[in-house]
Amino acid sequence: MPQKTPALWRHLLAMVYDTFLVAPLLMANAFVLVALFGPTSSVAEPAVPSWLMQLTSLLVIATFFIVFWRKSGQTLGMQAWRIKLVSDTGEAVGVMQGLIRCASAVVSAAPLGLGYWWALVHPQGRSWHDLWSKTHLQLEPKRSKAS
To answer: For the whole model, what pTM was predicted?
Structure first.
């Protein structure tokens, strides 16, 4: 029996959950950069170059997702909502697939989230970044309660 595709609302709630986990990592990233570059005396002239803050933030975010996807196919938010990311080939999600998925998720979100809404009209419920990264989400069965 093929695995069921999770509803878009479930995917979006998992993203909210993961945002609460990524935010402290981004704060730690900013803390390290400010510690290295020193505090700023003016908001108009930040001590940390904006390009460096943005680049390291993107690396932190991509690393968070790719590590979880490579390890188990699930971030903590995905575990909470019983969603698993799998490769279309059935193998573990590769680093390059993870990078493509992260980059294309930004593209999916850019035009008012059209790439995410695409899952509502796609026959298999797949978003743009699912298609481009050759991955898909599946709904995991409920765990039975052990006695």
So the answer is: 0.88
**Interval 22-32: pLDDT, tens:** 999 999 999 99
In a domain, 85, yes or no: yes
Can you tell me the distance from the alpha carbon of 138 to that of 81, in angstroms, rounded to the nearest whole number?
Answer: 11
Q: Render the burial of 5-40: b for 16+ CB within 10 Å, e for the rest.
A: bbebebbebbbebbeeebeeebeebeeebeeeeeee
Neighbour tally for 93: CB within 10 Å: 24
Looking at the structure of the chain, the number of domains it has is: 1
The sign of the torsion formed by the CA atoms of 80, 118, 121, 95 equals: negative
